[in-house]
Specification:
By secondary structure, the protein is α+β, with helices and mostly antiparallel strands. It is built from 5 helices and 5 strands. The strands form 2 sheets. Strands 1-5-2 form a 3-stranded antiparallel beta sheet, with no helix packed on it. A two-stranded antiparallel ribbon has the order 3-4.
């Protein structure tokens, strides 16, 4: 029996190049320009999708500490960050450091807690997002590599379904409700019928 495993970057690239009839490869280090292009587009689409900010790559009130120069260093895999809505501080990323837009300086008097959108490697994405990124990348690849409108049109329906699955995953994991705040913190517990049934 074949062993079913989670999607890998190699499997994703093979799916992408198969969209234009190319044979699968056993490694990404082939020197084949089409394979390199497929991997580049996969990375591009992964960044684009993750930059939207989803449950799996968004954290609120994430702590950032200062170094000896009062600088707050920002990791390379931070796609976006924001201060709390109630904060009077305004910050942005410049040269991988947090820049104070109010006082026009890189120096901070205090550590900061920021809302962050992270960029994760393809292998660390939830399976629904791996599938969506792969299918979207395959459509972009087909359009750029051979200008195949037929292949792109064929994949558009599949891409819609893949994005729907990604949104469904995000919704289930997020447990969104109208009673939550912008950080999805929930202080209200709605009525749960099974609690009443359990008493009988």
């Amino acid at each position: 029996m074949a062993i079913v495993s989670k999607a890998t970057k190699l499997a994703a690239v093979n799916t992408i190049i198969s969209n234009i009839g190319q044979a699968p490869v056993t490694t990404l280090e082939t020197g084949n320009p089409l394979v390199e292009m497929a991997e580049q587009i996969l990375n591009e689409i992964s960044r684009s999708v993750q930059s939207e900010g989803w449950v799996f790559n968004t954290e609120f009130h994430y702590p950032f500490g200062r170094d000896g120069n009062k600088f707050i260093r920002i990791p390379e895999n931070v796609l976006a960050l924001d201060t709390a809505r109630t904060s009077t501080k305004r910050a942005t990323i410049r040269n991988y450091r947090l820049y104070d837009k109010v006082n026009h300086t890189y120096e901070w008097d205090d550590d900061m807690e920021l809302d962050v959108i992270w960029l994760w490697p393809f292998e660390e994405l939830p399976e629904a997002f791996k599938n969506y990124v792969t299918i979207r990348a395959a459509n972009v690849f087909a359009g750029r590599s051979i200008g195949s409108t037929e292949a792109v049109k064929f994949g558009e329906r599949e891409e819609i379904f893949a994005r729907s699955s990604a949104i469904e995953h995000d919704t289930q994991q997020g447990d969104y409700t109208i009673f939550a705040d912008k950080n999805n913190d929930q202080s209200y517990q709605s009525y749960l019928p099974f609690n009443a049934i359990r008493r009988y």
